[in-house]
Every structure is written in C-alpha cells, then in structure tokens.
Specification:
alpha/beta, disordered N terminus, 4-stranded parallel sheet, 187 residues
C-alpha cells in the first residue's frame, strides 16, 4: 500500500514477497506498506522498499488505518478474492485497488453484488496483462533501474526443470522469499 510524500499512501497490499510493487511507488515519493504472513520476513521487505511491514493475520485494514487513518490511496491485491474485501476496506474514498493476483487459487467472488461488496467511493480495477501493455519508455525505465541496481527483485531461488515439483511446493507452502525461477537447460 502506498502513500505519496503528501499525507496519502500506497499499499502494496500483496501478501507475497516479490519486490516491484513496493519499489516502484517508493521511486515516486510514496510511503509504502507491505504485508507478510511471516514476521521473520519483515527485514527483507524493508530492505526492498517497504516503509511499514504489517503481519497479515487475515485482517489488515485496521492496522493499515492505524498508520494511514483515512486509508491508502492505492493498493495492489495479489492474493485473490479471499483477501480482496479487506484490501478494499484499507483503501480511502476515491482510492483505487488493483486486483491482479490469484495466489489463493480462488478465482471468483460468489454472489457478487457490487453495492454490497465495494466500500462507497473505492474504485476496483483489474490487471491481467503483459509487459507489452506498458509504454516502451516506462518498461525501459524499469529495466534500466533493475540493471543498475536501483530496483532489486529480491533474492531469487533457482530450480532446475527436474526440480519443478519442489519449486511449486515451496511456493504453495510459502517457504521462499523473493522470486522463484525454473531454469531450463539444453533447449
């Protein structure tokens, strides 16, 4: 979740441990809140750009609002539909939540009734695109920052293709911090 240097906020309200959603708003002068289910990951999240790390107990909106009383300006939801209502509740009136992740494997909101589901005045948008959706200059700027170290992607954990079951298990059981990479040799 993020807050530009003025009294607003950006909540990279993902609960996983990738870095770019936290890092980009920080380069725009935002205050960044990030969540994790494991308190031991707070240091890694702070090192990768989070100003505030919240331990996710299943409900973070009260904790977010204790830091940003009016709610955050923007939030990125990466877990999925089970955590979406709480992320919406952490967002201010006229703020925006971008739903872009399905880590929970729950794909739909049962009996979705927008007026009953969305807080008044909070916008919900979705993104499921690719790098080609970004203007070339924006993508290149991000790649340049990664290349020169201004944006760190976190510690990658690399698996060989024959270790893909282990990689998937590590991801599903939340045993990794950073990016998981499966390397394919001999193609």
């Amino acid at each position: 979740m993020c807050a530009p240097a003025r009294p607003s906020s950006c909540a990279a309200a993902p609960r996983p441990s990738g870095s770019p959603p936290r890092r980009s708003p920080r380069t725009w002068g935002s205050i960044v809140l990030s969540t994790t289910r494991q308190a031991g990951r707070a240091k890694a999240l702070t090192e990768h750009g989070a100003d505030h790390v919240l331990v996710d107990t299943g409900r973070i909106s009260d904790d977010v609002r204790s830091i940003v009383p009016g709610g955050v300006d923007a939030a990125v939801e990466l877990v999925g539909t089970p955590t979406l209502p709480d992320t919406l509740a952490a967002t201010r009136v006229h703020g925006t939540v971008c739903f872009t992740g399905m880590l929970s494997n729950d794909w739909t909101v049962p009996d979705f009734y927008p007026i009953g589901y969305l807080p008044n005045g909070v916008r919900l948008t979705g993104y499921g695109g690719e790098s080609t959706d970004l203007p070339a200059a924006v993508l290149q700027d991000c790649l340049d920052k990664i290349a020169d170290g201004r944006i760190a992607l976190g510690p990658p954990q690399v698996y060989r293709l024959e270790e893909i079951r282990e990689a998937h298990s590590d991801m599903e059981h939340n045993r990794s911090v950073g990016k998981l990479v499966v390397r394919i040799d001999n193609l």
